[in-house]
Amino acid sequence: MHVELIVDARNAVGESPVWVPEENALYWVDIPAGGLQRWNADTGHVDAWTAPQMLACLARHRDGGWVAGMETGFFRLRPNNDGSLDSEPLADVGHARPDMRLNDGRCDRQGRFWAGSMVLNMGANAANGALYRYSAGQHAPIAAQLDGFIVPNGLAFSPDGKTMYLSDSHPLIQQIWAFDYDIDSGTPSNRRLFVDMNQFPGRPDGAAVDADGGYWICANDAGLIHRFTPDGRLDRSLEVPVKKPTMCAFGGSRMDTLFVTSIRPGDDHDEQSLAGGVFALNPGVKGLAEPVFNP
């Protein structure tokens, strides 16, 4: 499997890749830097903006720009051509403790924005993380829909929107769950174990779902992207040239390219010279366009 380094981004924590077909471009974030980045597939040029807080996850806004999960809650972001970034607070989430931020997130198929929260120090092993749902007009603080997580991650929705996936990527947990999802109310129920990642290489990080319902999960620490079938069977594992892939997303002109972001650790750079980069590979299946936030 050929893997191409498309941007030697050297992100501390690259995350939340989102393909924008109208621009033939990929956007993603560098969480601790508050960085929003854009790669133009036609020219290879990279643009960058800086948000006022750590920036964890993105979804396109129906009316232009982005809705984002940051440190304190949900924001509206509008990148400008001069490199400036307009930032508008939408709603705080009311974290359980002050040393927290939002983490992995995306829209459901109906355009509601979801994001999980985590304590900044993963070593604290603190199960204060929660999952929040944001729709326009909500007032802060937003109530948690699910709680008791250390590092909620791997959020994704089946092609019909009726199954929600969620993981906890902390080394003490490493499990992926499936939920029945009410597409009318935006309510998950009937939580059940989908995959126990303790049985496979790597910790479950960010995810994507392909057009056939396959669940692709970045196996952090293992340098792999696993695909699980809708019934939870491991279908294939693809290698990437870094130990810590973080999240994947489908894109390209035919939606058959899998883009992968990654982490650049503070050490190990001699062996991990490409760490923190953004990669592209052809996984052999097509994906779905990422849902747009629909207020």
From TrEMBL:
<dbReference type="InterPro" id="IPR005511">
    <property type="entry name" value="SMP-30"/>
</dbReference>
<comment type="similarity">
    <text>Belongs to the SMP-30/CGR1 family.</text>
</comment>
<dbReference type="InterPro" id="IPR011042">
    <property type="entry name" value="6-blade_b-propeller_TolB-like"/>
</dbReference>
<keyword id="KW-0479">Metal-binding</keyword>
<dbReference type="GO" id="GO:0004341">
    <property type="term" value="F:gluconolactonase activity"/>
</dbReference>
<keyword id="KW-0378">Hydrolase</keyword>
<dbReference type="GO" id="GO:0019853">
    <property type="term" value="P:L-ascorbic acid biosynthetic process"/>
</dbReference>
<dbReference type="Pfam" id="PF08450">
    <property type="entry name" value="SGL"/>
</dbReference>
<feature type="domain" description="SMP-30/Gluconolactonase/LRE-like region">
    <location>
        <begin position="13"/>
        <end position="263"/>
    </location>
</feature>
<protein>
    <submittedName>
        <fullName>6-deoxy-6-sulfogluconolactonase</fullName>
        <ecNumber>3.1.1.99</ecNumber>
    </submittedName>
</protein>
<feature type="binding site">
    <location>
        <position position="205"/>
    </location>
    <ligand>
        <name>a divalent metal cation</name>
    </ligand>
</feature>
<feature type="binding site">
    <location>
        <position position="101"/>
    </location>
    <ligand>
        <name>substrate</name>
    </ligand>
</feature>
<feature type="active site" description="Proton donor/acceptor">
    <location>
        <position position="205"/>
    </location>
</feature>
<feature type="binding site">
    <location>
        <position position="103"/>
    </location>
    <ligand>
        <name>substrate</name>
    </ligand>
</feature>
<feature type="binding site">
    <location>
        <position position="15"/>
    </location>
    <ligand>
        <name>a divalent metal cation</name>
    </ligand>
</feature>
<feature type="binding site">
    <location>
        <position position="153"/>
    </location>
    <ligand>
        <name>a divalent metal cation</name>
    </ligand>
</feature>
<keyword id="KW-0862">Zinc</keyword>
<dbReference type="GO" id="GO:0005509">
    <property type="term" value="F:calcium ion binding"/>
</dbReference>
<dbReference type="InterPro" id="IPR013658">
    <property type="entry name" value="SGL"/>
</dbReference>
